[in-house]
Structures are given as structure tokens and as C-alpha cells.
Amino acid sequence: MLESAPGFLVPPTSRWPLLRRSSRLAGAALFAAILVACGGSDGDSAGGGGNAGGGGMGVGVETPEDLLASFKQQTLNWQTCDPSLIEDEDDREELAQLGERAQCALMRVPLDYADPSSAELQIEVLKVAAEQASQKLGAIVINPGGPGGEGLSVASTTSLTLTDADPGEAGGLLREISRRYDLVGFSPRGTGRHSPLNCELTEEQVLVNEFFVDPSPENLRKIQYNARVFAEGCAANPLTQHIHTDATARDMDLLRGVLGEEKLNYIGYSYGTWLGAWYAGLFPERVGRMLFDSSLDITGSFEDAFLMQAQAEQRIVDEVMLPHAAGHPDRFGLGNDVTVLRNRLLALSAKVKSRLISSWIYESSGELNGDTFVTAAALGLQDLLTQKPQASLQELKAEIAGSSAFAIPKVAEYAYELSNQLFSPVGQALDQDRFVHWSIRCNDAGPQPSVATVGTDQYWSALFQDFAEKYPLAKESFSYNPCIYWSEPVKKMPALAEINKAGQLLMLQTRYDAATPFEGALKTLDALPNAKMIVVENDYQHGVFPYGTACVDKQVADYFLHDQLPARISSCAGKELGGDEDEDEDEDEDEDEDEDA
After folding, report:
1. What's the average model confidence in pLDDT over 548-553?
2. Contact criterion met (CB below 8 Å) for 255 and 184
3. Contact criterion met (CB below 8 Å) for 521 and 297
4. Which of 191, 287, 508, 539 is the most buried (most CB within 10 A)?
């Protein structure tokens, strides 16, 4: 799979299919199958502008605001959730544990807020009811990020996490959130079963190599060919132009009203912070308590934010991963010299290095030990391949079994899996979350002129060459960019001045976050004078709350329960990185049991 289009997602849970569970959005349908002619009218400032009928604004002509009334006045038909809406098995099991507290419904939204009578979509909503309805403080809508992240199960998984929090000061407060708030998740337009975006490509994608493995003009041509075919396929679907943050923010405001909430309480992770800021700019008077967890830089464009990732990933390797490995030489077998270890990594062949970098999970500090074992496996494989460069997969695995370099069981385990990756072709994989991801990314414009422009294919390939030299152990993320072949963005984020009318917000950020780097979060904080930020030191977890320490969780809980905010910037110690060896072994035993089942 081409690892050149990262998203701002809550930490990934898959390294390889046999070792980590993964979650994918499912379902696709043609545009005509998901649109239903609107029969009613409706009204609110959620509307865009212009006359639905295209004529003058005379007496008797309904405005877009008038035409939103039928959407605002709808009543959601809450029912037992269909488990098949949640693809991941673990998430389905968690949903089942909630019993009747979890209910699902479909919400109607206009396809086009500038012309609400034209057509409509249906969006899936999941609500976990507050345990103490008589003391309810309201509802919290949650977005997991993406763009294009599955949004239903985040409500059920968050609810269980809060409900099952360990006793104690912070744990009790987390449980109180579950008791006093409904937690609500939804499938953003373009995702889910009822309004999926499907870009029908008229030409087949071709297999490519990562650009830093094969920087040849021919490989670059293939990468950019795939990007162009992807962009053209999405442009051909009329739904694409309606998949952007502005519409999703307006959908959230409809959801707020339909839920009977005067204010929107909200937790947004990663891209969800961009979505939350957009909502705040559109409806500042309707903002309740908002947590921006792992904040995107909202002052520029998506491309500005992506440009920060390579430096942040390289920083994790240099300042966290390598010192961690060198600090535990007996456990990982990588010696105790950071400089020597770094030079060994830089000397890896392009093929081995690319597979290693692609397997590192920069977004989750909980995977640090696994990443370090994979590193040891890659270095051992490189030594074998140097001795026997023509070895087949079977020969390579036989060498692993007999080599003392793989005496540590976990190193050998990862070496076998990494060997499979070395002998597998690399290709561009397409799925529903990628369609939505790129549609939002290419359709959105930031609130002010961007430092980075989409530019040309030559611009991005030259930029990557420069970044490859500066950040040699970071993932490549620039040579593939469908936005190069996109039309102009269709929506612009509201001005920062409008966002600041929303009042006080709370931000939560780890110091070494790679997906939404600390530098970008600081830009957002600087642009929001009323915001406060909690910084978790010595950690790179992407998607933090609930974190599991009193310092972090108490401050967030106090905000939602008592409207108490910390100082402008407060600091909390991070958890011990990597966990302990017993936890790793227990995790492996659980995975083995799951596979046997």
C-alpha cells in the first residue's frame, strides 16, 4: 500500500494483519441511490446563501433559511443499533455491552445548504444515554478525526472507557461525565452506509514504489498518474462537491438542534479540531464546552499542516525511539549507543528502510516497544540480505530461524512478518475513507492565505526531495497529492475573528505529536486568545483523552462538569513510554486467542 497519503486519525491499531487489529469503513453506492428528493422546507442560519429557486427575493419566495425548517423539525427515530453498522468486531462487542443505553437513528440533512430543497442525505447517529438522566448536563458530540474517520463507534467506545475508569479522583470524574452527558457519534457525510462517497475511477491504478525507494522519473510519473485518475474519478461524482467541512459543521448544528441542545458540547480529535473550529466560526453563539484534542493548525491549510509532519516524525525517532532502544540494550538487542544505531538505520537499503518506516506507528506511544522490536528485526534482516542478496522468502525465513540475531522472540516474530512485506508488491489501495479524506482536504480552504499552495506535481516532488534529505527517517507524504489535479477549494473556513467569538475552548496536546505537531497546535493557540492548552510532556500519543493520569483527566473533567479551565498553558507529565514487558506478553497472548477463535 502506498504510504503517501496520511490522515489526521486517532492512533492506528494495525501494524500487520496478523499482529494488530484494524478498522475500515465499509460500503459504497452510486450517487443516485443515496439522494432523496426533499419534500419540505426549513429555516436557520445554517443555510448558505442565495435563493433556492434562483429568482428574486420577493414576497412569497422561500429563502434557504426557510427551506431548512423540515430538517430542523424532524424527530429522530431512536432504535436498537444494527451491529453491522460497526465493522470492527471489538467495537461491536463494546456496543453490545452498553445494552439499551446505546440507540441509533438516521438524520436527514440537505445535500446543499445553499439549496436545501434540491436533495437530501441520511446520516447515521449513535447516542449513548447518560446514566443519570435526571442530572443530565447535556450531550457531547464526538468526532474522531480523519478527515473521513468512522464516527459512530467513537461514542460507544468513549462511553465504556469513561464508565470503566479506575476509581480515584480523576476516575470518579470520568465516570461522572458518563453519568451526566449523552455521548453522541455520527457518520460524517460521505461515510457510513447511507451516504457513502464512491469515486468511480475510469482507469486502473498502477502499482508504484514509495518515492524515496524509487525516485525515478518513471515511478514519479506513475504516482502522479494515480493521483490524477483518483481526482478525475471523484470530480465525476456530483456528491464530491458537497463533501467538505462546511457542510459537516452545518450537519452538526442540525444534530445539535434535533437533540434538543441549546449549545453544542463537543470533543474533536485531530481533524475534528479543524471541524470544531469551523463550527465555532459559523455558530459562535451556539458553542458550549469544546475540547480540541491533538490540534491541527487552523491558521493555514491542510497542506501547511502536512508539511509539519515530517519534521515531527524525525524528532520522535531521534529524541524518543532511539534513546528508548539504547536505554534497554538487553531487551531489544540494539546496543546502547544512539549515534551508532542511527547510522545503522540510515545505512539500510531503500527497500528495507521503507518497509521499516511504513511499519512504525508514529501516532501512538503505546506502540513504542513494538516499533523498537520491528527496528531490531529490520536491522537483522538487512545483515542477512547483505550476506545473501538473492535469497528467496523461504530461504530468508530459514535464516531467521537459525540466526542468533533473532534470539529475542519478539524480534524473530516481527522479522517473519517484515520478510513477507519485503516480498510483497506495493500498490495504491483505495477505500471509502480515502475518497472522503481527499474530498475534504481538497475542497477546504483555510481561514487566511496559505503558506503552502497546492502547486504543481513538480513543486511537490522537489519538496519531497528536500524533505527526504532533512528528515530521512520520516514517512514520505508529498509525491502523491490528488489536490494537484483538483479544482479550486469550494469552501473557506470562517475568519479567525468569528471563531474567537465562541468564547473559551480547551486544547490538549502531547509534546511530540507527529500527526498534528506541537508547532501547529501552538499556532492554533496563538490564534485563539480565549483558548487554554494542557501539554502532556515526553509523549507523542495522538488522540489523548482520556489519558489515564489525574493531571490530565481531572482538568478535562472539571471543564465539562464544572466549567473550570486551567491556565493559558499548563503542563502534565507523560506516562512511562513503552509500558512493561509483561503487558506486551499479555497482549500477544490475547491476540493469539483471538486468531484461534
Report:
1. 95
2. yes
3. yes
4. 191
Quote the Cα angle for 203-206-211, to 5°. 135
Helix orientation angle between 368-387 and 581-596, rounded to the nearest 10 degrees: 80
Residue 258 pLDDT: 97
C-alpha cell at 516: 498534528
Q: List, in sequence order, the alpha helices (H) in 471-580.
A: 496-499, 518-527, 550-562
On the question of pLDDT at 380 being above 80, the answer is yes
- The DSSP result for 94-117, as a single string, is HHHHTGGGEEEEEEEEES-TTSTT
What global pTM score does this model have?
0.87
Interaxial angle between packed helices 153-163 and 89-97, expressed in degrees from 0 to 180 and rounded to the nearest 10: 60
Mean pLDDT of 106-129: 96
**Please, what sign has the CA dihedral across residues 305, 308, 314, 316?**
negative
Asked whether the beta carbons of 507 and 525 are under 8 A apart, the reply is yes
Highest mean pLDDT among 49-63, 206-220, 556-570, 575-589: 556-570
pLDDT digits (tens, 9 = 90+) for 574-597: 999 886 444 444 444 444 433 333
Distance, in Å, from the CA atom of 426 to the CA atom of 436, rounded to the nearest integer, reads: 22
Task: Determine the Cα–Cα distance for residues 153 and 115; give it in Å rounded to an integer.
Answer: 31
What pLDDT is recorded for position 460?
Answer: 75
What the block records as the C-alpha cell of 183 is: 455521548
Rounded to the nearest integer, the mean pLDDT of the chain is: 85
Strand 287-293 vs strand 506-510: parallel, antiparallel, or unpaired? parallel
